[in-house]
Amino acid sequence: MAIADESLAETFIERWKKSEAAEQANSQLFLRELCEVLEVPAPEPTVQDELHNNYVFEKRVVFQNGDGTTNVGRIDLYKSGCFVLESKQGSDQKEPSAPLSTAAKNKKHRAGTAPRGTPAWQQAMTRARNQAERYAKALPVEAGWPPFLVVADVGFCFDLYSDFSQSGKAYTPFPDPQSYRIRLDDLADPQVRTKLRGLWLDPLGLDPSRRAAKVTRELAGRLAKLAKSLEGKHSPEAVANFLIRCLFTMFAEDVELLPRDSFVTLLERARKKPAMFIPWLEELWRAMNEGKVSTSIGEKLLHFNGGLFAECTALPVNEDQLELLIEAAEARWTDVEPAIFGTLLERALDPVERHKLGAHYTPRAYVERLVMPTIIEPLRAEWESVYATAVQLESEENARKAREAVRAFHHRLCEVRVLDPACGSGNFLYVALEHMKRLEGEVLNALREFGEQQIPLLTIDPHQFLGIEVNPRAAAITDLVLWIGFLQWHFRTRGRTELPEPVLRDYQNIECRDAVLAWDAVEDVHDEQGNPVTRWDGRTTKPHPVTGEEVPDETARTVEKRYINPRKAEWPKCD
Q1: Collapsed DSSP state (helix, strand, coil) of residue 370
Q2: Measured CA distances, 465 to 272, 362, 509, 513 (Å)
Q3: Where are any strands of DSSP class E within 154-262?
Q4: Ramachandran quadrant class, 39 (left: phi over 0; alpha: psi -120 to 50; beta: rest)
Q5: Distance between CA 457 and CA 501 in Å, rounded?
Q6: Could you say which of 86, 95, 286, 404 is the most buried, measured as most Cβ atoms within 10 Å of its Cβ?
Q7: In this predicted model, what pLDDT tens digit does every residue of 64-98 receive, in sequence order?
């Protein structure tokens, strides 16, 4: 079967790469044959009752014009709950290398959408994407928002855009702005065919955050077990700081900021020489902090700094604890989902909160309900206006001004500041960062489209994402989450470009303090006899003897405090 699949794909590629500039003639035949290659059902015949046209060519939709009038549009290919597909067909015509004869000039050539690879072609593909989104908006409410938009240049490529929240708020390049385009030749790869097949059969299964959430939960479970085993001999704070440094080192290794497998190898060597675990690890962290040669792994390292490795104390581990570290280091840290990682890590490292590790956390979709309308939608609306202006300038043969308009928007994007004054472990700030990095990837693609040779070094980074958090451990985790998220998306939007050093910077954008009150001093409250006044600590619980539900543990007490000169806390400036 596999050999037959390969043969069918190769035949399809060779047959269709010759076609060009005839969208109406070719589109439906191309898509039917694609279904055969992907081994998915072909579109169904259209019926009179539009409610039953759930997988058809030329799906009818009605546009509401806002003035009481309507007009009809037709989706090139529609599959309910899966995708809206808009097709075009460009041409492979090249500029002639020599003057054309009169006969050649008079000969008619089909241009199709536009000559491929030109700014005009890319702009046509962008217009097709916008048209696909308008079709999605025009679908009946009961049909819901499809998770994918597809723009196909028949016989050449497929551009994929996703919105797994199915809210229609932001269809973004899938999986990222660097790799959202599948070219016809890519169909020779079985993994690419499997991905495209997923659009037809299980589009939500392609959501990378689902797989990442599973990986993240598994890692948090391992870290919780390790943290609990270490706390008998060390304070929770010392354990948390040690493990935070360990896990960033694991992430840095997986994204090749450290030599591949170098940290895992160091840990495996410590099995045979357990006495060397602490000196090897502390030497590695000092080298990362200073950007020097590490004798532990025998390589010159990048300069990390940023405060994370300024303190490089390692804790002693026994054989079982070392094995847990090795298991965690062998996991795919590139797949970690920062949107939930902070919450789970905070619970894993907090002795009081650890019992909640498997409990509810704020789902990403809930976070996006706030982040999208307040931050991302206004920025995207602004970008659409800038892009339209740039296209107009380019059509007037003023590519320089088109690039200037795009660069100006990019500069603005890199200065937008977002504040979460009760940031917890950073999931809202991370989701804002991710969506802004996604938008930045599209802006950089547009710069290349308009002929920019030098992509700006300026980039969206953690200094723009401001947080206030009273819990020191949560504040440290937020800082970590933002840097992991930034590095993930730096590589997804800019490729394996060299990072400026230091890799981490201490922007002090996450402040550990109260967001409501400021004060000059704090003192303990005493009663008339001079005894401290105490209250429940506000967090420690115990099972109720009858119901088994968690209730406050009245024996967990803390001294009441008095604030001297209390006043409203000031927040940092933001947009």
Answers
A1: helix
A2: 44, 19, 7, 16
A3: 157-162, 172-173, 181-183
A4: left
A5: 13
A6: 86
A7: 887 888 899 999 999 999 999 999 988 776 544 45
